[in-house]
């Protein structure tokens, strides 16, 4: 049995490892393609066009449109999957480095083509690109400090934390979780409203506290109501919408009000 | 989580990032050749 559990947990580690490796590699690949695609466009002056009814003065370099659009969307999707899997595995992630990696690499492109190797023959510094370089270095460089500090903290033994406001958005009690649980309850409420017959749902207000939608009735129907309410409460409790104390209080209320007389 | 496991996850992610950059360069070179 213990061996089975160990086997199960090592399988889970392998699955998590594959997910995290593939999704992070996907993000890095997408960032690289955006970086290289941007360089290819800057190399021909910084603007180009494809398709449409007009005569095109500067065609885009081969593949650059796909690299930029695919890289941005692919990077976002892979980054979302990567964050999800690292949270699920309880692993400190490099997600805080992704923003600095994007802005510093693109900022380097602006600096490189703006002053070091301006495009065109005998091209001088390109002021517009230098402004972008400074902005991108500030936007990428400042968050790099807390991102690196977060990784160092995690390596030293602190629990994994998402950078900046992301923990509040995704962690327990955070906005996304509350929104999901509220949506689940609204769906249940709608189902109850369109279903004829006695309703059994218990509405849990986001701030806590529960309101039975209809008072439970006694007898056999009341018994079925009680079971249904207890099941519903259990589901809400397991989903995290109800705290332990709220769950116990609601269960006592259901058992007290609807139990057999 | 033990220090060994933290080191494992750190190295795995560093390797993934490195592999992703290499893959990106390979794809770019293959498409633009």
Features:
heterodimer; A: about 260 residues; mainly alpha; B: about 35 residues
What does it look like?
The complex is a heterodimer of chains A (261) and B (33). With 261 residues, chain A is mainly α. Chain A has helices spanning 2-42, 64-89, 95-116, 127-155, 166-170, 175-194, 219-239, 244-258; strands at 202-204, 210-212. In chain A, strand 1 and strand 2 form a beta hairpin. In chain A, helix 1 (2-42) runs parallel beside helix 3 and helix 7 packs antiparallel against helix 8 (244-258). With 33 residues, chain B is an all-alpha fold. Chain B has one helix at residues 3-32.
Give the quaternary arrangement of the chains. heterodimer
The helix count of chain B comes to 1
Mean pLDDT of chain A: 81
Helicity of chain B, as a percent range: over 70%
Number of helices of chain A: 8
Distance between the termini of chain B: 46 Å
Strand order of the largest sheet of chain A: 1-2
Provide the succession of SSEs of chain A.
Answer: HHHHHHEEHH
What can be said about this structure in brief?
The complex is a heterodimer of chains A (261) and B (33). Chain A is mostly helical and 261 residues long. Chain A contains eight helices and two strands, in the order ααααααββαα.
What's the arrangement of secondary structure elements?
The complex is a heterodimer of chains A (261) and B (33).
Chain A: H1 2-42, H2 64-89, H3 95-116, H4 127-155, H5 166-170, H6 175-194, E1 202-204, E2 210-212, H7 219-239, H8 244-258
Antiparallel strand pairs in A: 1-2
Helix pairs in contact in A: 1-2, 1-3, 3-4, 7-8
Chain B: H1 3-32
